[in-house]
From TrEMBL:
It is found in: Cell membrane. InterPro entries: P_starv_induced_PsiE-like. It comes from Methanospirillum hungatei JF-1 (strain ATCC 27890 / DSM 864 / NBRC 100397 / JF-1). One of its GO terms (cellular component) is plasma membrane. The chain crosses the membrane at residues 23-47, 53-70, 82-101, 107-126. This is Phosphate-starvation-inducible E.
Length: 168
């Protein structure tokens, strides 16, 4: 039967879904960035009011959590893998934020014990779970324009390669 083979259809469909998923992740990154800016602005306006340590500390930790989630999404876009170690770190910081927000004295002792066990298990998983992957950051980066031009060239090469694959 002439035309596209069964495997090529699956390959095209998989690539289409990956591109759609990348667009969704990029949109999520944009929303996270807007949320970080909104939080910073609310903290700035809160400086005019009496100082509340719990509010400021919880908002700073919240921004750190957003930054870590942003980093997780960037790793996903770059490598198409989920960084479980970063997810665990985000979970730990989020739990700490909630404890700071509510105040340690106002939390039920059984809840504190449960959270302690959760912390201990997450830390053990981070330390001995062998899930941490070393991130290698490219040190020799060009300007924004050079990086953008290189990305467009890579995209054009991949598009041409895919068109040649389909023709074969």
């Amino acid at each position: 039967m002439p035309g596209i083979s069964y495997n090529k259809i699956h390959d095209l469909f998989r690539r289409l879904l990956e591109n759609i998923q990348d667009i969704i992740v990029i949109g999520t990154c944009g929303l996270l960035f807007a949320l970080m800016v909104k939080t910073l602005l609310s903290m700035y306006f809160a400086l005019a009011q009496p100082f509340e340590f719990q509010y400021v500390a919880s908002e700073l930790i919240y921004i750190l959590v957003l930054v870590e989630i942003y980093r997780l999404l960037i790793i996903y876009i770059r490598e198409h893998r989920i960084a479980v170690d970063i997810m665990i770190e985000v979970g730990i910081v989020s739990i700490l934020r909630e404890i700071i927000l509510h105040g340690i004295l106002e939390i039920n002792p059984l809840t504190i014990l449960t959270v302690s066990v959760l912390f201990f298990s997450l830390l053990l998983l981070l330390r001995y779970g062998a899930i941490r992957k070393e991130e290698v950051e490219v040190l020799d980066r060009g300007t924004f324009i050079e990086e953008f031009r290189g990305s467009l060239e890579n995209f054009a090469k991949r598009k041409e390669k895919n068109i040649n694959k389909i023709k074969d």
